[in-house]
Design brief:
single chain; 710 residues; alpha/beta; Rossmann fold; Dna Ligase, domain 1; 4 domains; 7-stranded mixed β-sheet; 6-stranded antiparallel β-sheet; 29 strands; binds adenosine-5'-diphosphate; binds magnesium ion
Length: 710
């Protein structure tokens, strides 16, 4: 069934059967009376015990209903849900909302019951929302339907609320009512036996009544599909998605083979996913409401435009300016408005941004100055920042701001931060009704604007496709099968280089030597100085085993290094199988970075970049993305490490080759996309040379998935 069909069935059904409808207090009664209240289609109460429910003719089961039914709402005890689902299937009803609880969320028996319900749904082609959910609501007059057992019905608005938790859903709806925030749809997903966040997003993508989507999520079923759908919703359809995702706290370090594995918590991966999809992530309910309101009521400011702050006091103006700089927002240049503003304010005010119109300002002065900054073409958004004063009536000021916002019609964003609790609620009501997001203080107002500017950047960012390099996958396949034939999953360093070479990475000259003499012969080809490293499938971290000697300048040093490496390895791991010593050309001076990859069962291959070397786990200056990545995303990754300055060159250093890092990231992205069997991969370090000289991979670790997990 296409999403458009399920959109009709769930969001605007022509008829609903309520199984478990009742007059006795409880969920069956609550949901039935909510539906009756406002729904214009046909309603069929289904109950074995009554002939009528609230005056409507009842049926013993859906099969007895003579007409066709679009949607079934199931509010019966859990045990009989499978039987009910069979009836729904036989009646050819295509959608069911199961609000009954007592499934996966309670115990293994419940989980079994839930699987049964899911299977029956699949057999008959019934799409299911729930079980263990609150139901769903459609709130426009046209398609009014409250199929939830919530206590109160919110008002209509353009925000869709989707929640995995019923409790959060109920609380959000009540708090929204209190804050005068309306919804287009409210969807409680519950246990997601069938319809998950991706299906729900598909329903909402083309819903004309929905302008902003707000989600509370605990987990995601299919990261790849989530990425495709959310990108379409945010970028193509330009609907912001604001997500409150539970579980920001780290899970604690897991035992991992690679640096990448050790650095990747589930939260980093979700952050990466959200960034790549243009999703706005918030940490608190407060932020969720603030952003949802702002996006639903105000236009998103234009790219490249700045913020103008208009205030009646110096202190608050400075606080707002600080907040702008904290969030990296640009203050608009108001030079062109200087003369006009100077005529409107006393001489000790300031016509520069932040505009200080001084403490004796009344709403009239605010009005004129706001009018002037709105007409300045550098200004994309205006914050009216205000402190109580005897000359200022807040209610009048609120009306002034609303009037200015309505008058512009130029698509400029207006928010207000009015300090002073004792000024009462009236001014807030006026702002709310006039579609002006209002805050008590500057910080959340500016934070909100930051999210809006970032969204504008996201939608205007040109989309590029992941680059396809000319590479040799068959070579990689050969290496992997050779490794597997030896019942191994981890590659030796030299095998790793074969893989990297096949994907066009620049690596250094190297040879595996099985004896001291072979070592010396190898060096004749490579040339001093050299590096020597232990090669053993049983030693993963070579330095830890005293297995790396660098900067060897002559034959004597090389011979001593060979012996020391073998001896150290034997001491470190007496049982280790030793393949020999890898002799490698010494890399030129450069900065050590790390490139990594890790497979995640939900999200697929993730790619990592950061500052490398032995301190990676301490500094944790790394970023993740889902592969494949485009060039622009690779560039964004490089820019977003905190220590980027070191790569750009400090104190007279030349800039390092950032372009070569970008290319390496794209090549790695192609490799891990082509080979999903790579479980973990570290290039640590990738030495970055000065601009124009490229990068060198001087260590590589690849770990394959166990074959039974392929
Ligand atoms: P491991 O990470 O297993 O301990 P590496 O091969 O990464 O072993 O070597 C440890 C460190 O030695 C590297 O981080 C790098 O600083 C240095 N090193 C290794 N190989 C070279 C090389 N070819 N040229 C210069 N420095 C090297
Ligand atoms: Mg290393």
């Amino acid at each position: 069934m296409s999403s458009i069909d399920s959109q009709n069935i769930f969001l605007s059904p022509r008829s609903i059967a309520v199984i478990g409808a009742s007059e006795k207090p409880g969920v069956g009664k609550a949901i039935f009376s909510n539906i009756v209240n406002g729904y214009r289609g046909k309603i069929y109460p289904i109950t074995p015990s009554n002939e009528f429910v609230s005056g409507l003719k009842a049926y013993k089961n859906v099969l007895e209903v003579p007409d066709q039914i679009d949607l079934a709402v199931v509010a019966t005890p859990n045990k009989i849900v499978p039987r009910i689902m069979e009836d729904i299937g036989k009646k050819k009803i295509k959608g069911a909302i199961v609000v009954s609880a007592g499934f996966k969320e309670v115990d293994e028996n419940g989980a079994k019951l839930e699987r049964e319900v899911g299977l029956i749904g699949k057999d008959y082609g019934i799409r299911i929302i729930g079980p263990n959910c609150l139901g769903i609501m459609s709130l426009s007059e046209k398609s009014m339907m409250n199929a939830t057992f919530l206590k109160i019905t919110p008002r209509y608005g353009n925000i869709a609320l989707v929640s995995q938790s019923g409790a959060i859903c109920a609380a959000t709806v009540e708090d929204a009512i209190a804050q005068n925030i309306g919804f287009s749809k409210v969807i409680s997903m519950g246990n997601k036996v069938d319809m998950d966040e991706n299906d729900i997003l598909e329903l909402l993508a083309y819903d004309e009544e929905t302008k902003v989507i707000v989600m509370y999520l605990e987990d995601i079923h299919d990261g790849r599909r989530f990425m495709a759908i959310t990108k379409k919703v945010t970028k193509e359809l330009q609907k912001p998605i604001i997500v409150l995702k539970a579980g920001r706290t780290p899970e604690g370090a897991k035992a991992a083979m690679s640096h990448t594995g050790a650095l990747m918590g589930s939260d980093e991966t979700f952050d990466a996913l959200f960034k790549q999809c243009g999703i706005i992530r918030v940490d608190t309910m407060q932020e969720l409401f603030e952003l949802a309101t702002a996006f639903s009521k105000q236009p998103v400011p234009k790219l490249g435009s700045g913020i103008a702050i208009v205030s009646n006091a110096g202190g608050p103006a400075i606080i707002s300016t600080d907040a702008c700089s904290k969030y990296g927002l640009r203050m608009a240049d108001l030079t062109e408005s200087k003369d006009v503003i100077n005529k409107l304010i006393p001489p000790h005010g300031s016509s520069r941004n932040p505009v200080d119109i001084v403490g004796d300002a009344d709403y009239g002065r605010f009005e004129k100055v706001i009018h002037e900054v709105l007409s300045n073409s550098n200004v994309g958004s205006v914050v009216t920042m205000c402190t109580p004063s005897a000359t200022l009536n807040y209610d009048d000021l609120a009306r002034t701001i609303v009037k200015a916002s309505k008058a512009t019609g130029t698509g400029k964003t207006m928010v207000a931060a009015l300090m002073g609790l004792a000024e009462g609620l009236e001014n807030k009501q006026i702002l709310s009704d006039g579609n002006i997001p209002h805050f008590m203080y500057a910080e959340p107002a500016i934070r909100t604007l930051e999210a809006m500017y970032a969204f504008r950047e996201w939608i205007e960012k040109p989309s590029d496709e992941p680059k396809q390099f000319n590479v040799d996958p068959s070579k990689v396949r050969q290496v992997f099968s050779r490794v597997r034939a030896q019942s191994r999953t981890n590659l030796l360093e030299e095998e790793g280089y074969e893989v990297l070479e096949a994907y066009g990475f620049s690596i250094l000259k190297k040879r595996l030597a099985k004896s001291e003499e072979e070592c010396i012969t190898a060096i004749q080809d490579i040339g001093y100085p050299v590096v020597m490293k232990i090669s053993s499938p049983d030693i993963v971290h070579k330095s830890d085993a005293g297995g790396v000697k660098i900067g060897l300048k002559n034959e004597n040093e090389a011979r001593l290094a060979f012996r020391a490496i073998i001896e150290n390895a034997r001491m470190y791991e007496p049982e280790a199988k030793i393949s020999g010593v890898l002799v490698q050309e010494m890399a030129r001076e450069g900065k050590e970075t790390i490139l990594g990859a890790k497979f995640d069962p939900v999200l697929g291959q993730l790619i990592m970049f950061g500052l490398g070397g032995i301190y990676v786990e301490v500094l944790k200056d790394v970023v993740f993305r889902l592969a494949p990545i485009e060039g622009s995303e690779a560039a964004r990754m490089i820019e977003s490490v905190r220590t980027i300055k070191l790569l750009e060159g400090v104190r007279g250093e030349k800039q390092h080759d950032l372009n070569a890092i970008k290319e390496s990231l794209q090549r790695l992205s192609q490799l891990i996309t082509d080979f999903q069997e790579i479980e973990e991969l570290d290039i640590n370090p990738l030495i970055v040379l000065e601009e124009g000289n490229g990068v060198r991979a001087i260590d590589i670790r690849i770990n394959l998935k166990k074959s039974d997990s392929l």
